[in-house]
Amino acid sequence: MQNEINFQRDVKDHWYVKYNENGYPHVQQGWVLPPERKEDFDPFILMADDWFKRGTFSDHPHRGFQTITYVIDGRLEHIDNHGGHSILEAGDVQYMNAGWAARHAEEAVDDDLIHTLQLWLNLPKHLKNTKTSYQNIYVEDVPVIPFDNGSLKVYSGKIAGVTGPMNSLVPITMTEISFNEAGVYTHILPENHNAFLIVRSGEVEIGTSKIKLRKTGVATLTYKEEGSDQDSELVIKANNRAKLLVYSGVPLKEEVVAYGPFVMNTMEEIKQAFRDFHDGKFGPPAK
After folding, report:
1. Cis-peptide, bond into residue 146, ω within 30° of zero
2. Is residue 66 part of a domain?
């Protein structure tokens, strides 16, 4: 017998992404999750919505967190300094655990204009020195679950009875929900997960207060900070064809210092990361 679900999710805050026209090669950029509000998004740090040409994100280092890069359009070439190389296309995702010392490049292929959403996911203190790793999640390997008026893709976590292929070091969910016409879907999330969503197309009404959001609308959701992994419900009503991404994770509740390409617990650890990089401890360039 299933436990009765008694926690109904609602919208905690909502806004629309504001974009900067940066010019060539980083053509346009907007903050889905603004980094100055990272405490509100725990365990997430930021999310960037980027359009860019080749030469924007060449060889660079990271330490202390994970990235989840969702390709919306174009071809994304990944190169790292351990010999890794891959090309991702629309609907694909790359998960990276920067861990102790990542050094990689994320570039548009040839003359493509690439469009991505990149989420920074924090690592708890005891995992910040873990081994760097990369995982490509190709769209054809992502479970698709139909429901009345639409379907969902489960990239990470256990949703609707299936488990997504992403092997995150911390428990998160990532789901793309698509409506092919107006309809209602109830999304199930652990009640203790901090969660947010971004609308990619159409118009939807979210939660018990039925907040309306259109394309580029973002919402953070209510959750039980002292709750368990018991299920909670988020009601999503689409007023027409619509698509949105929903992410959730358990807050770490640790001190966070994010500076440049590093996310640590103290400023001294940030300074040490810069020293280690300049001393060559991150290894050779990615090329």
Report:
1. no
2. yes
CA 157 – CA 167 distance, rounded (Å): 9
CA angle 272, 278, 283 (to 5 degrees): 100
Q: Is 78 annotated as a binding residue?
A: no
Q: Is residue 198 part of a domain?
A: yes
In a domain, 95, yes or no: yes
In this predicted structure, which of 80-84, 192-196, 198-202 has the lowest mean pLDDT? 80-84
Which pLDDT value is given to residue 226? 87
User: Is residue 109 one of the residues assigned to a domain?
Assistant: yes
Tell me: is residue 82 an annotated ligand-binding position. Answer: no
Give the Cα separation of 60 and 277 in Å (integer).
10
Query: Helix H segments across the chain?
Result: 38-41, 267-278
Domain count, the chain: 1
106 is in an annotated binding site: yes
- The CATH number given to whatever domain includes residue 50 is 2.60.120.10
Instruction: Give the single-character DSSP code of 4.
Output: P
Q: For residue 126, say whether it is annotated as part of any ligand binding site.
A: no
| pLDDT 10s digits, 4-29 | 778 999 999 999 999 999 999 999 99
